[in-house]
């Protein structure tokens, strides 16, 4: 894909409609699919403003969607925040409306990507735009050998209050509501299916879909002042989708009490029931989370990725099938370059040198 606006327009016109959802990960705006339809029949002068915004953003950032060869927005400088991109605010061009502020930010160094929910004024509500921004940050160069672990954190005293209820009124169509819940489900499944471990770093309240996000992460570290709840039942909207992740993280009776009453549980209770991996004082939260992430980042990415995928794959199986699957995985692991490197390093009493 070429990196100037006119060339990009020619390239993108040839993208089949079935691939539009992937394109639109980088421009998460309601009605985007409809606005782009049908691209191939429209004259350039008749194209919607959204299409122009998308092309300009693609050309400006050189982000590697569909094989673009630009430097990539997570490789500009160590720990540097993301510059203007598909969904972030940038200088307004002639005849081009200014985009809204980006709802997440991301930075990466030493194999650790930190994604921050950055809408504290709205209690980091998981609006459709927020979900798509988070999805984009998680998906970006997921297969890169330079990515070893992801941390999801948040600005402000609320980790996330769950869905934006203003998007769930009858002023919006059932199709829009379906898109919200489907996108949320995709993000939660993406975390489990991602090749690298994903850590939730929680300092504050996590409710409804926010609690679901914590439950969906592979590891969750929280401050001792954090709390967790699924209060939808109190608003007439039962937390059915959060219950999927919650019911797989804590015992059934604990999950159902939270779902039926909407009452919050403390960080210590969440730790005791398995929703959290560790609870620390607030002043040590970042230090401890980074320590865990750093340890994972020091290990072999292929080995960790194989282990994560296998762990989730064997969970729903019966005992015999689980052992069959994991036994074969152990054979595959031994055959990996890093598998042999680790074994030889142990025998030779030296530190292993991982391929990735």
Shape: globular
- The succession of helices and strands, N to C, reads HHHHEEHEEHEEHEEHHEHEHHHH
Sheet-strand content, in percent, reads 5-15%
**Could you tell me the radius of gyration in angstroms?**
22 Å
Report helical residue fraction.
40-55%
Structural class: alpha/beta
Arithmetic mean pLDDT: 81
Instruction: Give the oligomeric state of the chains in this entry, treating copies of one chain as homo and distinct chains as hetero.
Output: single chain
For the largest beta sheet, what order do the strands appear in spatially?
Answer: 1-2-3-5-7-10
**CA-CA gap between termini:** 28 Å
Keywords: Fatty acid metabolism, Lipid metabolism, Mitochondrion, Transit peptide
GO cellular component, one term: mitochondrion
Pfam families: ECH_1
GO biological process, one term: fatty acid metabolic process
């Amino acid at each position: 894909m070429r990196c100037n606006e006119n060339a990009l327009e020619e390239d993108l016109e040839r993208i089949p409609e079935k691939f539009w959802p992937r394109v639109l990960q980088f421009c998460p705006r309601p009605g985007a699919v409809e606005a782009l339809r049908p691209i191939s029949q429209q004259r350039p002068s008749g194209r919607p403003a959204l299409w122009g915004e998308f092309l300009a953003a693609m050309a400006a950032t050189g982000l590697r969607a569909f094989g673009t060869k630009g430097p990539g927005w997570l490789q500009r400088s160590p720990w540097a925040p993301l510059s203007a991109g598909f969904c972030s605010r940038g200088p307004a061009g002639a005849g081009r409306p200014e985009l809204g502020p980006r709802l997440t930010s991301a930075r990466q160094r030493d194999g650790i990507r930190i994604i921050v929910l950055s809408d504290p004024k709205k209690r980091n509500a998981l609006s459709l735009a927020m979900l798509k921004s988070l999805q984009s940050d998680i998906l970006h160069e997921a297969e890169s050998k330079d990515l070893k672990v992801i941390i999801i954190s948040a600005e402000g005293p609320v980790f996330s209050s769950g869905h934006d209820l203003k998007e769930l009124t009858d002023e919006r169509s059932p199709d829009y509501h379906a898109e919200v819940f489907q996108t949320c489900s995709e993000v939660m499944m993406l975390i489990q299916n991602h090749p690298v471990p994903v850590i939730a770093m929680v300092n504050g309240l996590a409710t409804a879909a926010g609690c679901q996000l914590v439950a969906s992460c592979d590891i969750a570290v929280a401050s001792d002042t954090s709390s967790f709840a699924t209060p939808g039942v109190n608003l007439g909207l039962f937390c059915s989708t959060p219950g999927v992740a919650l019911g797989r993280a804590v015992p059934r009776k604990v999950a159902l009490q939270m779902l039926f009453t909407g009452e919050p549980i403390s960080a210590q209770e969440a730790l005791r029931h398995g929703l959290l991996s560790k609870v620390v004082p607030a002043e040590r939260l970042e230090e401890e989370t980074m320590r865990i992430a750093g340890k994972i980042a020091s290990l072999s990415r292929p080995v960790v990725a194989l282990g994560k995928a296998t762990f989730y794959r064997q969970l729903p199986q019966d005992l015999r099938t689980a052992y069959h699957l994991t036994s074969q995985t152990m054979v595959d692991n031994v055959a990996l370059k890093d598998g042999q490197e680790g074994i030889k390093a142990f025998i030779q009493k030296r530190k292993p040198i991982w391929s990735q």
